[in-house]
Write a structure and sequence with these properties.
Layout: E1 3-7, E2 10-13, E3 18-25, E4 33-39, E5 46-52, E6 57-59, E7 67-71, E8 77-82, E9 91-98, E10 112-113, E11 117-122
Parallel strand pairs: 2-11
Antiparallel strand pairs: 1-3, 3-8, 4-5, 4-9, 5-6, 7-8, 9-10, 9-11
Length: about 120
């Protein structure tokens, strides 16, 4: 059974930093697209950052230059380093995965999701 479990959320002041982790179990990881998504109250879920099997990364314009997604090959943990946080980054953050795709995360079917972790940024 595939499980994704996020951790590392919390409350921080603006311009602070947090690192989110997503522990993956029960899935072969020879190929994957994995990503971080977020949903703020009253808003639709949006994609934040993605990484593919070859290590290529992609970011939403709103977080480019501030957030870094990473995953060590052979390790079962996905990370999101968030720096220079802003109040508008406040949301529940989810990790998600498609274990059938090598590259081309734009076309991924994210069918595995974690339970989410709250990030709150105060001004």
């Amino acid at each position: 059974q595939v499980q994704l479990v996020e951790s590392g959320g919390g409350s921080v002041q603006a311009r602070g930093s947090l690192r989110l982790s997503c522990a993956v179990s029960g899935a072969p990881q020879s190929r994957f697209c994995m990503g971080w998504f977020r949903q703020a109250p009253g808003k639709e879920r949006e994609g934040v950052a993605w990484i593919d099997t070859l290590g290529s990364t992609y970011y939403a314009d709103s977080v480019k230059g501030r957030f870094t997604i990473s995953k060590v090959n052979g390790k079962s943990t996905l990370y999101l380093q968030m720096n220079s946080l802003k109040p508008e980054d406040t949301a529940v953050y989810y990790c998600a995965a498609d274990f059938s795709r090598l590259v081309g995360c734009n076309y991924a079917n994210y069918n595995y999701w974690g339970q989410g972790t709250q990030v709150t940024v105060s001004s």
